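Review form for a predicted model. The reviewer records the input and the model, then writes brief findings.
Reviewer: anonymous (R2)
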Amino acid sequence: MKSNPTKIIRAFVVCAILAFFAWSSLMFKNHWYKGLPTIDFGERIISSPISQSGAVFVQTVKGVYSIRLEDMTILWRFPLMGNPWNCDPIIFEGMILAPDDKGSIVAISIDEGALLWQSARPYSTGGSERVETIASRQNFVYIARFNSPLMAIDALTGNVVWEQPTFNRSSLFLSFYDDTLYLGGDNQLVGFDPQSGETLSSKSFPGYISAMQTDSSGIYLAVSDDSRVSILLYDPVKDAIVWQKHRVAYSVDYLVLMGDKLYACGDGVISIWPNSGEVDWAFLDIGTSSSPAFIKNSLIVRQQKNGDYYQIDINTGVLQNRLTASSSPEHIRSDNDIIAPVVVSDLVLLNVTSSQIVTYRLDLDVR
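Model under review:
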């Protein structure tokens, strides 16, 4: 009986592919080391953890918590009803600035968890209760709400300093460039004087803005035409587009600058050289719904469909580790609101269920 060389080659290729996937599953197994403290709030978590000086702060639907990282002990709890659609709290000048379920911003002392001030609610100023983003600079805190005026408040008292009407759009972004406060949303990028609220500039783009980031080179934008997303660098001083990459992804929800790269996260992760816009590498079709966390030479993102966490080499775009429901004793599940991973020192804080945060230490030598 004669052997068929073609069939033998095909069989060899199939066996090689199966062996590779078997090897991959072994390589990606047990590289997330647990055995570290875990905390279960018994309440739905609605923000990514933020940290400062060894403490971690988390907002749930019923309060804001301060946690000691080394043993995940609760240091204080501030009762506050939260909205899952709100943006995450921020840390500013010894305060936690957290949105409540009525559209107000509450300033909480980091050390003691005491109330410092509470801003005006939208029913007293007009507008929506949904807080899209919070920004801060010098003695001002800026709040952008859906279908509401842009508001500047005094960081010491919580009093309203100025308000400016904006466009009717969710997914609003605030950032600073060249001493100007920029608000991105819909297809508009509007510049304001951060002290007075005076409108300084307005620029339209051929699609709605889905992500925004700034550095000394200008303003990076992800602009969607409802079918694909383009990424560009805009110089507001010269009113010029420095570079633009057309239709690079189906969705981009986050633009993050880290080191010498710009990372676009949406239906995958794309690494871009920010000076030229050239794509360095792309890890696509995982449907990330979180902003990335960075640790050593890796980034970590969370997949939207099933809640898996991916650790990707930032130099090559190669998958290093993957934490799945089957490999996690906590059984990761997909929630409607996916909480982004957070790195503190060499530890990774993961939201694995709607009420629980688990601390992992990664094997950073795996390649």
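Findings: The chain is about 5% helix and 50% strand.
Further findings: The longest helix spans residues 5-27.
Recommendation: see findings above.
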